[in-house]
Design goal:
Elements (H helix, E strand, L loop, with lengths): L5 H14 L8 H5 L12 E6 L2 E7 L10
Antiparallel strand pairs: 1-2
Length: 69
C-alpha cells in the first residue's frame, strides 16, 4: 500500500463515483466528501495495486470533535 499522487486521486474518485452510480451532474464523491479526497489529505489515503492497476483504496480525514463537559 502507498499514498496516491494527485492524478491517481482524480482517477480514483472518478471510478468510485461511477461505481456508486453518481450522475456526472451530481459531482460524485468529491462533492460529498471533499476533505477526504483533497490532495492535502493524500497522506491519509492509501491505494493497493494489482498488475500496476489500483485495485483497492482506504482513507480517512482527521477531525477534532469538541464535546462540552
Amino acid at each position: 500500500m502507498r499514498n496516491p499522487d494527485k492524478k491517481e486521486i482524480a482517477d480514483l474518485t472518478g471510478r468510485i463515483s461511477q461505481a456508486l452510480g453518481y450522475n456526472k451532474e451530481e459531482g460524485g464523491v468529491l462533492k460529498d466528501f471533499p476533505q477526504l479526497y483533497q490532495a492535502s489529505n493524500s497522506k491519509h489515503l492509501w491505494v493497493s495495486e494489482e498488475n500496476s492497476t489500483i485495485a483497492a483504496h482506504a482513507g480517512f480525514y482527521p477531525s477534532v470533535m469538541k464535546v462540552e463537559n
